[in-house]
Write a structure and sequence with these properties.
Blueprint lengths: L2 H14 L8 E5 L11 H9 L2 E4 L2 H10 L9 E3 L5 H13 L4 E4 L12 H9 L3 E5 L4 H9 L11 E5 L5 H12 L4 E6 L4 H8 L6 E6 L7 E6 L3 H6 L9 E5 L13 H9 L2 H12 L3 H13 L1
Helix pairs in contact: 1-2, 4-5, 7-8, 10-11, 11-12
């Protein structure tokens, strides 16, 4: 093991070792989405400490561990991916009941968001066992950060994580139509071999802004904000833009371009409920900002 590896693991132990890491617990460990430097000291400490590491791809994870100087035998790595997640979770539960510390990692990023892990956590919790999340890299939050969106009184409140759209053109077009009516920011992920098809599907959004994040955190990272109708031409301008993984943010429609609000839901709720309760439910149903709904509810009441 090189001196740099020893130094990194020693720093991880010094920074994170004082915390208690109970046995018989599942540790959900976020790993880099591209840049190997984007891993936390606590993640390194837990990966070194774990009796078993459950992972999407054992070969990929073994390479990742070796990059940090962490030595695990093949018997300590357990494959848990989208095709065997339910069955493999039983093996994880069995190891937890033997008081093992089990760490789960996806191939990249935070487990259980767009990668396997959610079913594993659900089965561990159903067995009455503990799951402990270790936060870290995520393409979702990285893309949102780069988009420069501010939450305010213009109807934009929060975001929606949509993940991968359908691979079928008709279904994808329908999904985009639904997203065009979404008043919050929308995060989409896409693979390089489907990015041109996605660009064509998003073209009907025309002037709606999208932030494109390509190869986020990696050497050839590229981030651009452009109109949806320009996305296809942007990809065609450089052949390299068809390479790498993508995370995209569809910006909320600007207030000036937004359609007049449809207050049917709000009116129906106001007929049966107190104002504040009606506004809360309307916000949950429509995704609109509560402040804007509250102002319209007051106007409706006074009218």
């Amino acid at each position: 093991m090189s001196a740099s590896f020893i130094s990194a693991l020693s720093a991880a132990k010094e920074a994170a070792g004082a915390q208690h890491y109970p046995q018989g617990a599942l540790y959900l460990v976020a790993t880099p989405i591209g840049n190997l430097a984007d891993i936390s000291l606590r993640a390194l400490h837990v990966l070194a400490l774990a009796d078993t590491i459950a992972c999407e791809d054992t070969r990929h994870t073994q390479q990742l561990l070796r990059a940090y100087g962490i030595d695990k035998s093949s018997g300590q790595l357990l494959a848990v991916h989208q095709h065997n997640e339910a069955q493999a979770a039983e093996g994880v539960v069995a190891r937890l009941r033997q008081d093992q510390r089990v760490a789960y990692v996806s191939d990249a990023g935070t487990p259980g968001i767009s990668d396997p892990g959610a079913r594993l956590v659900a089965q561990v919790q159903a067995a009455g066992l503990r799951s402990i999340p270790l936060p870290g890299a995520s393409s979702v939050t990285t893309a949102l950060c780069a988009a420069g969106l501010a939450e305010g009184g213009d109807g934009h409140s929060g975001f929606v994580f949509r993940g991968f759209l359908s691979s079928k053109a008709t279904e994808r077009a329908h999904e985009v139509q639904l997203l065009s009516e979404e008043r919050r920011a929308v995060v989409i992920l896409e693979a390089p071999h489907r990015i041109e098809a996605l660009a064509l599907a998003l073209a009907p959004l025309e002037a709606r802004l999208i932030t494109v994040g390509r190869e986020l955190t990696k050497q050839f990272e590229e981030i651009a904000t452009l109109a949806a109708g320009e996305f296809t031409a942007w990809l065609a301008a450089d052949a390299n833009r068809l390479r790498g993984e993508f995370a995209l943010v569809i910006h909320p429609a600007p207030a000036s371009a937004a359609q007049a609000p449809d207050d049917r839901v709000l009116k129906l709720l106001l007929e049966e409920l107190p104002l504040k309760t009606a506004v809360k439910l309307a916000a949950d149903i429509t995704g609109e900002a509560r402040n804007a709904l509250y102002e319209r509810a007051l106007a409706l009441k006074q009218g």
